[in-house]
Amino acid sequence: MIHLIIHLPMEAKLGGLVQYRWMYPIERYLMGLKASVRNRAYPEGSIAEGYIVSECLTFCSRYFSDIETIFSRPLRNDGNIKKWYIFSFGGRPVGTMDTKILDAKSLSQANRYVLLHSDKLSPYRQEFLESERAVYGGIQISKRTEDKWLVEKFPRWLAKQVPKMEVEQVDADVIALAKGPHKGIVIWMIHVIWTIYTYWLLKRNKYFMSRMARVKDGSMLSE
Fold first, then answer.
1. Where are the domains of the chain?
2. Distance from chain centroid for Cα 39
3. 0.90 cut: is pTM over it?
4. Contact by Cβ (8 Å): 174, 120
């Protein structure tokens, strides 16, 4: 087997990417054709008949709007994304669930990021800046100073607006953001996002010698 170390790199250089030349897709397709054989005395005719039936079903199923087909059914890892992305939960968790309490710094950073980037909170950010500018009268305030206000004062100011929001019957999601996040978070070992990415905790991924941890977020996640 030692000679493979020499021959396999040469084969890869000559053939290019393996997905354009391997036989697995063709073998799977041939297996589907062989499964359509009903009369072993005439395999070619059975395969041709099965192929025609498959093509007809595929063509007709494109026009069934009220019937779930392979073209209209939801994705396997459909995460039921909500309209507002902040409360969306794309994909699905896999494995055991664990809980963790965030430290004060991480909690503050996460809360600040959401409050400063949420589109629904844009009117409240503008109202906060106007109230801060009123304190200084007609003095010109720099953009850097206003950004500092948003970072340091806006979360506390927004939390004080919760009673007023409840009286005015503001959207429940906005009130939830104003109250701030919970210190406890939920952790899963694996999270599948759509049909493309699967994220594993690094401490679980290290036991699989054939899997490469290519993408990491700090020391927690890997793809």
1. 4-61, 85-101+185-222, 104-179
2. 47
3. no
4. yes
